[in-house]
Amino acid sequence: MFRRVATAVAALSLGAAGFALAPAAQAGTSGTEKAWTPPSCQGHRANTAVWVTCKGKGSASQVRMVYACRVLGQVVRHTTAWESLGARSSTTISEECTFEAVSAKGEYRRP
Q1: Rama region for 14: left / alpha / beta (φ>0; ψ in -120 to 50; rest)
Q2: Contact, 61 vs 111, CB < 8 A?
Q3: Which residue has the higher pLDDT, 49 or 3?
Q4: N or C: which end of the chain has fewer CB within 10 A?
């Protein structure tokens, strides 16, 4: 008899604890919070110019351009500083290569 009561009490305690922890575990997943949406970035190059145009898609972000220039036959990679991008805004980041532009792409992260 004592075993049955102890088992029932333990089951009720675990059930109550699980019920109490479940809402706390789901605190960050409520329907009121929006998921972060990354911006869209498009890289361009022409002769010695490189530029990236980024557009926000509903979430604030930070963006930068990673680009490559050819210098005396070698490709050299460069990176600009991070810039803030508003949720619905757009920005263009541009740089100039000394000899030849090879590539440009945008990178993004959460602020």
Answers
A1: alpha
A2: yes
A3: 49
A4: N
- The tokens describing 63, both together, are 């963006």
Cross-strand bridge partners of residue 106: 65
Q: Which residue has the higher pLDDT, 10 or 56?
A: 56
Residue 42, token pair as written in the block = 């498009």
Nearest to 63 by CA among 71, 73, 72, 54: 54
Q: Give per-residue burial for 12-50: e unless 16+ CB within 10 Å, then b.
A: eeeeeeeeeeeeeeeeeeeeeeeeeeebebebebeeeeb
**Residue 60, pLDDT score:** 96
**CA nearest 99: which of 66, 65, 73, 67?**
73
38: which 2 tokens? 């990354």
Nearest in space to 40 (alpha carbons), one of 58, 25, 15: 58
Q: Tell me the two tokens of residue 85.
A: 């991008």
